[in-house]
Structures are given as structure tokens and as C-alpha cells.
């Protein structure tokens, strides 16, 4: 299922160990595949035209139908209340056997989740192993604190084999601040002795120009993840709030902004679960110089705070040192570590 992108280029003395873990990983992915294509709805009386309309709206799997609210389905061409009820009922029947699982099964599934290295062992440890699949990890902090550097480092490390039989995968990068730099990726690839052209070829890049465009790009992401199932492992948005802050200004528009933001975050969460990928977003902090308390707070309010599974605050240290503080996680304690920004990306502070 996974094309083992970078792993193919790295066949060394570890070849045997890696190929064993590749097989193990493929077995796990096949076994746990949640990609029940909506084409199977044909066998249940749903027409091809309706299936194509669902696909046009980014719904490609049975899980995708279940994740979509009825009121959203009414916006799709050809779907009236009756048809939606019948569609929901069919999907419910199809997924009846896997609607619930035991806590032991959840525990097993969680142990299989891949984790992507940040480039710093200390930061990986803070995150319980790295940036986790099927969830949203958010880093926030002031300018130059390393958010984009961390994003670039993950673009490379996501392509490398890792624990739990992870064999590496492709990356999608949505850039809202025009700070994506292939040159940085080349020097990070060099650090890991990877072929720089392959590394660049494995990253799909899109520039978002406004918050609506950012949202439209997610539709394309959904299709891409479906078309190339299991190939992409990481989606980065650098930064999540920049365009929302420009497009919605003042108190009068805050409700609208938060509503749209909430929809986008919910979409991201669903994408991460449906396609088993890690989502990494960066965020800015408020610039309220009158109240210093506010000036260290991430923007996006409660909506973003609740939607991000894991939140990390970054601050500047001396020189190239940066401090990462884990603030919000469902299963990790609050703690902080130091890391370094180097030409090879994020690294550990050497003693
Ligand atoms: P904003 O996007 O402005 O909010 O900041 P950010 O948090 O995204 O900052 P970014 O990750 O871009 O980090 C910028 C810092 O990384 C600056 O201090 C740069 O000097 C440093 N930096 C960028 N490239 C290199 C490099 O090749 N080597 C080293 N050592 N540092 C670098
Ligand atoms: Mg940046």
C-alpha cells in the first residue's frame, strides 16, 4: 500500500531489518484499513451519479459519509432529505460490525500509531515519541521562534523509516505566509544523507491566498489522500491563523471567523483519522502590548485550543536555542525542553 519512497533509496546494511518491519507494517495497514470506498454503495442501490457527487464534495469513503452532517449533505446536488436518510441508514448497516471496539482494541490501535521525529530527541521525548498520527499537533510562538524550521524538518523526517514499522511517506505542505524554502529542505536532507531531489519530489506544496482558499485546498487534499491511499503521512499548515486574521477583522467578525475556523479544524481532525495521517499546524500569538499576559497567548481562541490534540509553546533562548513547552496533551505531562535551530533543521542542544 505504501510505496516506501525514501526507504527504497536507503538500502544499506539495515536492509533486512527494515524489510521485515515493512511487511509487518503493510499487514497492519491492510488489516486496519478504514478505506471502505463509497463505490460499494452501488451494491446498495445508490446511483453512480450520486456517488460522483459525493466524491466531488470530498466524500470518498463510508467513514467520510458518516463524518458528514445531514445538513452538509443537503448542500450536495441531487441529495434530498429522503435520499440522505437512506444513505445514512445504508452506511450505518455497512459499518455495523466496526462501530464499537473494546478498550483493548483501542489500546492496540494506539500502539500502532506512527510518530514522526522532530529532529530533536529531547523534543520527541517531550511529545511521547514525536508528532503523532491521527491527531493535530499545534506549535505556537512569536516570530523567529522556530515554527517554520520545525515544519521543514518534519517534511524530511516524515519520509524516513521510524519505529513501529513506519517506512516513511509523502508530505503535503500548505503555506499561508510564503515562507516555504526548498533550500532549507536540501540542507536538512543532507544532514540525514538523503537524496535531496527525492526529498523535494515527495513534498506537495500549495500556497493559500485567503482563508477560503485554505479551506478549498483541504477539499483537494481529501481527494489526493484518497487517490494515493496510504502514501501521504503528514499534512502541514504553516500557519493556520495568518489568513483568518487578515480576512476577518474586529469584534464584529469574530463570530464568523470562529465558525469558519471551527469547521476547518473539524475537517482536519476527520482527515487525520480517515486517512491515518499526522497533522502539524503552526500558530501565531496575540500582539497586545498593553497586556503582556495576552501577548503570549496563541490566537484562535477556544476553538483552536479544543481542536488541537497537542499544543506546544515555543520561545526563544540564547542564540539558536529555543524552548518548547508542552501545554496541552491528552496523555502527557506538562514539561519543557530545549532544542537548537541548525542548518540541518531542528536538533538537540549539545552539552
Ligand atoms: P514567524 O513565521 O515569523 O512567526 O517565525 P517562525 O517561528 O516560523 O521562525 P522560523 O522557524 O522561520 O525560524 C527563524 C529562525 O531560524 C531565525 O532565527 C533564523 O536565523 C533561523 N534559521 C533559519 N535558517 C537557518 C539556518 O539555515 N541555520 C540556522 N542555524 N538557523 C537558521
Ligand atoms: Mg514561520
From TrEMBL:
It is found in: Nucleus. It holds the Pfam family Rad51. Keywords: ATP-binding, Cell cycle, DNA-binding, Meiosis, Nucleotide-binding, Nucleus. Residues 1-21 are annotated as: Disordered. GO terms for biological process: chromosome organization involved in meiotic cell cycle; DNA recombinase assembly; DNA strand invasion; mitotic recombination; reciprocal meiotic recombination. One of its GO terms (cellular component) is condensed nuclear chromosome. It comes from the Eukaryota. Residues 112-285, 297-351 form the RecA family profile domain. The keyword NADP does not apply. Its main location: nucleus. GO terms for molecular function: ATP binding; ATP-dependent DNA damage sensor activity; DNA strand exchange activity; double-stranded DNA binding; single-stranded DNA binding. Belongs to the RecA family. DMC1 subfamily. This is Rad51.
Amino acid at each position: 500500500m505504501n510505496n516506501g519512497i525514501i526507504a527504497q533509496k536507503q538500502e544499506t546494511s539495515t536492509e533486512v531489518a527494515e524489510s521485515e518491519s515493512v511487511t509487518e507494517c503493510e499487514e497492519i495497514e491492510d488489516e486496519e484499513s478504514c478505506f471502505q470506498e463509497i463505490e460499494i454503495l452501488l451494491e446498495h442501490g445508490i446511483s453512480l451519479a450520486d456517488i460522483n457527487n459525493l466524491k466531488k464534495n470530498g466524500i470518498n469513503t463510508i467513514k467520510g459519509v458518516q463524518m458528514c452532517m445531514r445538513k452538509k449533505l443537503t448542500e450536495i446536488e441531487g441529495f434530498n432529505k429522503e435520499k440522505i436518510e437512506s444513505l445514512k441508514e445504508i452506511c450505518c448497516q455497512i459499518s455495523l460490525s466496526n462501530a464499537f471496539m473494546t478498550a483493548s482494541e483501542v489500546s492496540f490501535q494506539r500502539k500502532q500509531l506512527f510518530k514522526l521525529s522532530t529532529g530533536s530527541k529531547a523534543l520527541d521525548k517531550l511529545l511521547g515519541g514525536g508528532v503523532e498520527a491521527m491527531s493535530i499537533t499545534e506549535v505556537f510562538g512569536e516570530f523567529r521562534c522556530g515554527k517554520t524550521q520545525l515544519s521543514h524538518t518534519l517534511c524530511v523526517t516524515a519520509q524516513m523509516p521510524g519505529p513501529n514499522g513506519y517506512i516513511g511517506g509523502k508530505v503535503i505542505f500548505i503555506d499561508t505566509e510564503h515562507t516555504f524554502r526548498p533550500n532549507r529542505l536540501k540542507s536538512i536532507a543532507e544532514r540525514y544523507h538523503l537524496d535531496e531531489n527525492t526529498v523535494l519530489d515527495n513534498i506537495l506544496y500549495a500556497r493559500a491566498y485567503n482563508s477560503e482558499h485554505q479551506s478549498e485546498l483541504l477539499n483537494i487534499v481529501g481527494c489526493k489522500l484518497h487517490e494515493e491511499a496510504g502514501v501521504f503521512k503528514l499534512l502541514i499548515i504553516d500557519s493556520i491563523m495568518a489568513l483568518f486574521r487578515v480576512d476577518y477583522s474586529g469584534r464584529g467578525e469574530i463570530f464568523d471567523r470562529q465558525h469558519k475556523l471551527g469547521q476547518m479544524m473539524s475537517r482536519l481532525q476527520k482527515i487525520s483519522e480517515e486517512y491515518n495521517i499526522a497533522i502539524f499546524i503552526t500558530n501565531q500569538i496575540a500582539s497586545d502590548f498593553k497586556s503582556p499576559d495576552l501577548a503570549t497567548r496563541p490566537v484562535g481562541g477556544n476553538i483552536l485550543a479544543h481542536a488541537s490534540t497537542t499544543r506546544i509553546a515555543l520561545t526563544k533562548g540564547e542564540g539558536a536555542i529555543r524552548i518548547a513547552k508542552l501545554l496541552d496533551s491528552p496523555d502527557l505531562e506538562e514539561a519543557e525542553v530545549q532544542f537548537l535551530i541548525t542548518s540541518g533543521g531542528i536538533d538537540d542542544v549539545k552539552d
